[in-house]
Amino acid sequence: MKRRTALMGAVAAAALVPGMVMADERERGSSGHLNVIYWQAVSTMNPFLSGGTKEMNASSIVLEPLARFDNMGELTPWLVDEIPTLDNGGVAEDLMSITWTLTEGLLWSDGTDVTSADVVFTYEYCTHPEGGCAYRDRFAGIESVEAVDDLTIRITFEDATPNPYLPFVGAGSPIIQQAQFAECLGARAPECTDENFYPVGTGPYTVADFRPNDVIQFEANPNYRVPTQPYFQTITWAGGGDATGAARAVFQTGEMDYAWNLQLAPEVIEQMESGGMGTLLVDFGPLMERIELNFTDPSPDLPADERATMQHPHPILSDIRVREALSRAIDRELLTEIGYGPTGRPACNFIVAPPAMVSPNNDDCLVQDMDRANALLDEAGWERGSDGIRVKDGERLELLFQTSTNAVRQDFQSLIQQWWREIGVEARLRNIDAGVFFGSDPGSPDTYIKFWADVQMYASLFEGTDPTPHLEQRRCGREPRPETQWQGQNINRYCNPEYDALWAELNREPDPERRQELVIALNDMFIQDFAHIPLVARGRVSAAANTLGGLSLNVWDSEHWNQAEWYRIED
């Protein structure tokens, strides 16, 4: 408890830093240069072509949405002057449409006007039938997006939509410039290298130099709408290495000002923080470490365009008894203790935040149950061979288990491999460089989206406090596949028509209490189908140099949501 209190105290202290210097005393570029390190290197500056958090965060300081979520999870205007509501007439009384009005005078970084046509184009780009938009789920249930005039956009839904704040809201749904991306629709999207690496944006920074899976150089946007911002003139966004090196660069050597996603054992973080040069930032939101189970066959014996597609169900994991056995064999309390300490909590749900939407019905996963796991595999007809590994119809119960290269994840792999072997399951371990694993190259066989393995481990989250789009990702038809350039968020190819019908009810339900009930019901359906294996609800853990001010850690949007306000604290 003492360590947890110290961590939370660090967050509270960091939140007070912006008040140390009056904003009107600073000018654009007055803080000079900022060094940021992401040990998972960024592969593209177009978030629509990558489901990775690292790409979303990096692009969020260039590309912006109409509105986003602040550090308290509240919806806040960004490229508009106010949020449309029922009260102000922006949301139709029948909940069939929402109307947004752009702030007057907005400019792209190239000096041209931002108009409603750019917003309409963004919708067309992400919903193109031949395209592979990673965040297409944000536009589910839309009948049309139209430009009423140069500043006004009306979104009309197919059905009454009580939560109309999904399209063009949050870092995963920014606006892109029509003039720049006009020739990049559909299957051409991944081919537009210059556009994807150097997008024209409305954010506080522009890309000066982009080296995929390596380093990004940013410069202050001369046309940014706040004349005195951003306070840093330039940013070096370094990629690669590992979490240990990233933490050391802030806490001990002072080479870096900000380090993201310090997925390290608690004792390692505590030792490094004692260096006194940086502050640990921690807060809990929807981030959850899990094991995804592939519902399709990733066998290399299949043609490349048929591997891990709905044409071929998984020969082992299609049996719910096997999936449940794998989950029952895991000790989540121990994983949390060794991997995250006070920055993690054992998880039994798909939705782990906000608290009102967390199901109380699955806590039996907190107790490791080897007897139940063995009984399930016996029942499924898997018999132990002479080496202890189970066999059925001449096939060994063997699974390829992949994840990104990271000390905590490799520790988790080793423990889980041991527990699974105790119940007669052989896990072959594979780890892949994080920049590649979470990368966006549709030609790579090693991305987590392509999922050419039996099981894989990683963490993901959603923006805002409404999990509707996150739950939508598991609907039939949302899976990555060749015709979408392997983009899509239904990573494990789960398909359940009952789930889809319940989600459709959630999407049109206006009553808040009933919506909470439906979220919990969807979570329970997914979890009790053992569609994936939740492990740890993780806090976001990053580090900031003690000389860095203006930060406000945000677990509901991009961590860099207020990048324009970051500044250097003067002695």
Summarize the structure in words.
With 571 residues, the protein is an alpha+beta fold. The chain contains 15 helices and 21 strands. The chain has helices spanning 2-16, 53-59, 116-126, 178-181, 193-197, 243-251, 266-273, 320-328, 332-339, 370-379, 407-422, 434-437, 468-472, 497-508, 512-528; strands spanning 33-38, 67-69, 75-77, 97-101, 142-147, 152-157, 205-210, 215-220, 234-239, 258-259, 278-293, 344-346, 383-384, 390-392, 395-396, 398-404, 426-432, 455-460, 532-545, 548-549, 567-568. The protein has a domain at 285-464 and 530-539: Dipeptide-binding Protein, Domain 3 (Dipeptide-binding Protein, domain 3). Strands 1, 7, 8, 9, 10, 11, 12, 16, 17, 18 and 19 form an 11-stranded mixed beta sheet that branches. The protein is globular, with a radius of gyration of 23 Å. 25% of the residues lie in helices and 20% in strands.
Topology, element by element:
Layout: H1 2-16, E1 33-38, H2 53-59, E2 67-69, E3 75-77, E4 97-101, H3 116-126, E5 142-147, E6 152-157, H4 178-181, H5 193-197, E7 205-210, E8 215-220, E9 234-239, H6 243-251, E10 258-259, H7 266-273, E11 278-293, H8 320-328, H9 332-339, E12 344-346, H10 370-379, E13 383-384, E14 390-392, E15 395-396, E16 398-404, H11 407-422, E17 426-432, H12 434-437, E18 455-460, H13 468-472, H14 497-508, H15 512-528, E19 532-545, E20 548-549, E21 567-568
Parallel strand pairs: 1-9, 1-10, 16-17, 16-18
Antiparallel strand pairs: 2-3, 4-6, 5-6, 7-8, 8-9, 10-19, 11-18, 11-19, 12-19, 13-14, 14-15, 20-21
